[in-house]
Amino acid sequence: MGWRDLVYGAYERRVLRDLPRESLPRHVAVMLDGNRRWAKARGAGTAHGHQAGADKIEDLLEWCEEAGVEYVTLWLLSTDNLRRAEEELGPLLKIIENAVADLAATGRWRLRLAGAADLLPQETAESLQRSAAMTEGVSGMTVNIAVAYGGRREIADAVRDLLLDHAAKGETTEEIAAALTADDIAEHLYTKGQPDPDLVIRTSGEQRLGGFLLWQSATSEFYFCEAYWPDFRHVDFLRALRAYAERHRRHGA
Asked: Rg of the Cα trace of the chain?
């Protein structure tokens, strides 16, 4: 171990020690961005970048557990990503399938799927569903796997499900509209039954949401990190928690 590692380790322990546990987030959402640029910077293929990003996920979940986080949402694939060329999309879907299966196999976290499964190839959708089903009895941290996810699509799906649910009860359109509230829509989102994310982290230096959790992030705090996702370190996560803890949350006020 070199002196840089010693200094880094000491700094990391200090940041962790100084975090106010009472001010840490319950729900952390992460946009795992920068895999392709990470690979390009190393002269490697795109699939290598996606695999490096997948290999980092378990580290993140362990860090979240250590910090007492109860819910984590991981954006692994957007609806827009589904339009990528097949030579990239095919291997990426396999990497995601394997990564989610590996998370399920640990037996540590309860996995829930968040996305439009009908947009995925049947083989991928069934693989993800099997992995999530394996964790139904797990009482640990809940991890939302956002694959084929788009914020606008989620809201449209929520409204559609709400309308069909009420129509099945014999209610007219006028009756549904008269009684409709924001809470009614929230109860049909992919993350229904969970608290909204307190903290949204995006890696790679991009400072935009790109449609991630449009409804749920209305009062979230945001943290943008310059590191590409495969390079995201424990200390980067701790800095995000520290920045969150130092903010005075106004909840939209």
From this structure: 19
